[in-house]
């Protein structure tokens, strides 16, 4: 178990460059917990939150990647700490929440972003062990995390939670039963928590990434070069290109901020128009 920002302790550094952007300082003094925070969407969101004043606490499975992520945030003038954990392990995930509070105080924002894709296989032959692992990682972990942090937010009458769904939260797709089921469930959890928490000024929303350039997406074809993958996937997007992690991070940060103070129980896609090309039924 490790905890680190810079020089092996949570560190805060102020930089003038970090304040020269829209929303600069809007999270000052607030802690945001980010699962799946070492790469891709999670890291992009953590870096943007830190630039805007948040103290970010990251968790992911790889301690080495977390060290790199936290270092990159501190080098930009932000505040970051981490603890490695597998979110499919309930005890480990709850220990992360405890450590985050011990380090930075109350968790006022959470981005439940960790997830896994599982396997591609026909429904009738889908491995039950993989199914259970995907559900624990993508769905159960979100339930455990919300259950852990929501009571404190309700007591303080302040807080925002964003969970990462998927286009699969709104649509079915073949040969991916575990992922689709888990991402449908995540959206349901977000809506249920949002309605329960709304009278207490606590908001819960769900972001739906489309084809976003992340390490996971770019490894779909290990033999192809990045430009070929971007071109191939971009053909299926009405806007003609895949999205970036930074574009998704902008939405996540907005929903976590007070600028979204009357937005809750919503699912919002960052997909270049993909969902708009299909009818919901």
Question: Overview of this structure, please?
Answer:
The protein is of the alpha/beta class and 281 residues long. The chain has one domain: Rossmann fold, CATH 3.40.50. 41% of the residues lie in helices and 15% in strands. The protein has eight helices and nine strands. It has a seven-stranded parallel β-sheet with strand order 3-2-1-4-5-6-9, with helices on both faces. The chain has a two-stranded parallel ribbon with strand order 7-8. Strand 5 (159-164), helix 5 (177-197) and strand 6 form a beta-alpha-beta unit. Helix 3 runs parallel beside helix 4 and helix 4 packs parallel to helix 5. It is globular and about 45 Å long. The termini are far apart. Mean pLDDT is 91; it is low at 1-20.
**What is the molecular shape?**
globular
Question: What is the CATH topology descriptor?
Answer: Rossmann fold
The CATH class assignment is: Alpha Beta
* Rg from alpha-carbon coordinates: 18 Å
Mean pLDDT: 91
Which structural class do you get from the secondary structure elements?
alpha/beta
Major β-sheet profile = 7 strands, parallel
Q: Unreliable stretches, pLDDT < 50, 5 or more residues?
A: 1-20
Number of strand elements = 9
Number of domains: 1
Which terms summarize this structure?
single chain; 281 residues; alpha/beta; Rossmann fold; 7-stranded parallel beta sheet; two-stranded parallel sheet; 8 helices; 9 strands; 15% strand; disordered N terminus
Structure summary:
The chain has helices at residues 40-51, 63-75, 90-104, 128-156, 177-197, 215-218, 226-234, 245-256; strands spanning 31-35, 55-59, 79-82, 107-112, 159-164, 202-209, 212-213, 243-244, 267-270. With 281 residues, it is of the alpha/beta class.
């Amino acid at each position: 178990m490790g905890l680190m920002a810079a020089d092996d302790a949570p560190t805060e550094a102020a930089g003038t460059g970090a304040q020269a952007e829209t929303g600069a300082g809007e999270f000052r003094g607030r802690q945001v917990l980010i699962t799946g925070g070492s790469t891709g969407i999670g890291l992009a969101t953590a870096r943007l939150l830190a630039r805007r004043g948040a103290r970010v606490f990251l968790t992911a499975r790889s301690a080495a990647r977390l060290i790199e992520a936290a270092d990159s945030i501190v080098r930009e003038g932000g505040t970051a700490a981490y603890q490695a954990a597998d979110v499919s392990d309930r005890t480990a995930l709850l220990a992360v929440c405890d450590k985050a509070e011990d380090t930075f105080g109350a968790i006022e924002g959470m981005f439940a972003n960790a997830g896994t894709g599982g396997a591609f296989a026909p429904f009738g032959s889908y491995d039950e062990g993989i199914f259970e692992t995907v559900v624990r990682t993508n769905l159960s972990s979100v339930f455990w995390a919300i259950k852990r942090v929501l009571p404190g937010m309700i007591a303080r009458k302040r807080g925002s939670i964003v969970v990462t769904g998927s286009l699969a939260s709104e649509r079915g797709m073949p040969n991916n039963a575990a992922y689709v089921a888990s991402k449908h469930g995540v959206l349901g959890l977000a809506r249920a928590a949002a309605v329960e928490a709304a009278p207490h000024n606590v908001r819960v929303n769900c972001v739906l990434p489309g084809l976003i350039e992340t390490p996971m997406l770019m490894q779909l074809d290990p033999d192809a070069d990045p430009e070929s993958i971007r071109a191939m996937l971009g053909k299926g997007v009405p806007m003609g290109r895949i999205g970036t992690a930074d574009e998704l991070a902008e939405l996540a940060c907005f929903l976590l901020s007070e600028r979204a103070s009357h937005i809750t129980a919503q699912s919002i896609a960052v997909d270049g128009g993909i969902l708009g090309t299909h009818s919901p039924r």
